[in-house]
Amino acid sequence: MRVADLRQVEHDRIRKAFRLFDENNTGFIPSSELGNALRWLCLIPSEREVKLFQWELDPDETGWISWQGFLKVAARIWWPAQTLVTCIWEAFLVFDDKTTGHISSELLKNILTKVGREPIPIKEAEKIIKRYGRKDGIFPYISFIRDFTK
């Protein structure tokens, strides 16, 4: 997506993320925080993508990324809300072949820690399961999707 295609609410959300990492209100964030700032927006770039963005936005390796650079990169990988919700639903439905609205917590843990380009640490998977999973080992993903995409 281009910056010009962002809705005002999306632009404001990106600015809020930037300001959280621009502690001294200088109009710059540390390039080392780029991935965290993008992840705060639930954009979830891979480590490789973060490195490429850092090289693009800070080619002289000053250690700083401007607001305009951050906005450009965030817009480029921005998911319109409905598209993101649809993609997450479809991902869960791959593993929920009976469309029950839940999968086993153990299956989710295996998916999160072993599948994809960048599996997450076991501790992170366990935090998600603890927050949204039931005590009987079932993970009802509806509330997770709702919270993740708001």
TrEMBL record:
CDD domains: EFh. Transmembrane segments: none annotated. The keyword Repeat applies. InterPro entries: CALM/Myosin/TropC-like, EF-hand-dom_pair, EF_hand_dom. Residues 9-44 form the EF-hand domain. GO terms for cellular component: myosin II complex. This is EF-hand domain-containing protein. It comes from Echinostoma caproni.
